[in-house]
Amino acid sequence: MDKDHEPLLNDKDCEAKSGTLYSTAADTPKCNFISARHALALLTFFGFVNVYALRVNLSVALIAMVNNTAGEGLDNITKECKEPLLNESHDDITGEFNWDSESQGIILSSFFYGYIFTQIPGGMLAERIGAKKLFGFGILCTTLLTMLTPLAARTSFTALVVCRVLEGLGEGVTFPAAHALWANWAPPLERSKLISFSYGGSQIGTVIALPISGLLCQAWGWPSVFYLFGAFGLLWFVLWMSLVTDLPKDHPRISSEELHYLQKTIGDVSKMRKTAKAPWGRILMSLPVLGIATAHVCNNWGFYTLLTCLPTYMKQVLNFDLSQDGFVSALPYLVSWFVVVLAGQLADHVRNKRYLSTVAVRKIWQSIGQFIPACFLVAVGYVGCNKTLAIACLTMSVAFGGFSQSGYGVNHLDIAPAYAGL
Q: What is the pTM of this model?
C-alpha cells in the first residue's frame, strides 16, 4: 500500500518517529492539579453538553407546545399501546399551536438542513479564524437563537423553521472546530480517551435536557426551556473564551513539562497547515476518508433519528406523560455516556499496551458501534407494546453506539491530523 494512502497509524507509527513519541502513559508528564489538555477536555465536554441540550430541548418542548386534541393523523398511533409502564398522572398540557404531525416533523428536521451546510466550511473557518473562536461563537449563535425560539414560534410557523435552520448553521461548525483544536492538543496515544470524554458531553447534554425540559414545561411553561438552557450557554461561552487557547504554546497556565511533551509528541500542526494547501484531490479520492464518511453517515442516521424522535415515540406510542417522557428518553443516553468513556479508555489502553494495532482497534470498535445497535434497533420493531423490552432495546442500541466514538470519531486525527477539521 502506498504510504500516502495508508489508512491509519500502525504500531511503528506509535513508536518514536525519529524518537518523537512517548510510547507509554508512564512517560506522560505529571502535574499538580489538572493539565492544560485535560482542562481543555473538560471545557469541551461542557461545550458539547450545551450543544446537545440546545439541540434536543425542542423535542420535549414541542410536545407541550402542540395542541394534541387538534392534531390529525395520530389516532392510529396513540391507540397502539394503551397501558403505560409507569403510573401516569395524565396531566397533559394543552399546547397553543395547532401543528399536525407533518408540521412537527418539518420543525424537528429543519435544524439539520442548516447543520449540513457548515460542516466542510467549518473546517476551513477553523484554519482561518482559529478553532477556539469558531467553536465558541458557533455555540453562542445557537444559544442566542434558542432564546429567541419562543418569539419565533409565536410569530409564525415559518419564523420558527428559519430560526431552527439558523441554529443548525451555528452548530454545524462545532465538530469540525473541535477536531481542529484537538489536532493541536491530543497526543497520539491519548486521542481516544481525550476525544471520547470531551465528545461524551453530547450524551450528558441529552441526559440533562430531556428530563429537565419536561419538568420545566410542566412547572413554568414551555418557553422556560429555551431561556434556561440559553442562559447556561452564555455562561459557558464566557468561560470558554477566557480559558482556552488554540495552541499549547499560547496557553498562559501550561507547565513547561506538558508543553514540551505536547510539542514532542504532536509537533506544530498549525505550521503544517499554513505551509501546505489542503490536498483536496487526494482527500476526496482516499479510501480511508470514504470509509470514515460512510461510517459517519450510518452512525448519525440512527443516532439523530432517535435523538429527535424518541420523546415523541415515548409519548405517542408508549403513552408516557410529559415528565416521565423526558426521564425515560434520557436513559439510553446516560448509559451511552458510560460506554463512550469506557470504550475510549479501553481503546487507548489496548493500543498503549500494543495488544492490538491502531488499525485493528478502530475497525473493531467501529464494528461494535454499528452492528450491535442495528440489531437492537431492529428488535424494537418486534417487541410490540412490551414497554420494558422496548426501552431495554433502545437503551442497548444507543449505548453500544458509543463504541463508534473511538472508531470513526477519532479516525480523522489518525490519518491526517493537520486536516482533521476538514
A: 0.76
